[in-house]
Amino acid sequence: MSEREKESNFDFHLHHGEHLSNRNNTEFECFFHFIMARYDVFLCFRGSDTRHTFTGTLYAALREARFRTFMDTGELKGGDQIAYTIFEALEASRVSIVVLSQDFASSRWCLNDLVKILECRQTKNQVVIPIFYGVDPSDVWINLKLCSERTMRKYKSGGQL
User: Is the pLDDT reported for residue 7 higher than 70?
Assistant: First the structure.
């Protein structure tokens, strides 16, 4: 092989000289996602519960610390366009912080975001940090379970989510 061929032959190696082609594609995709993420942090929260209190303060602190942070400030308009924008930001984040508050589980938007966050946790190795704000963790899980059961019954009966 000539020097020029050696220079143009991009040979990626991981730990201990392991060749990239020997690794699982999913692992590479997770690694690539982590490096290429547009946001460091995605904030998931119930706006009426914490937007102007805890989550607003958390957002300001993260931005001040120079974390690229996505927060729905309540200015997004347009139904399906809102969901698309939020899901796009969520998928482009390294970490999701879920602020579980009193009325979190009563919002279909919050539940949809939570489902997407858990999906990203599985497919992109996204880090998920739950924060229980003003609620007991066991109460939140009971509420989530009840709401998700109601939602699944509605979905199975042909209702709109």
Answer: no
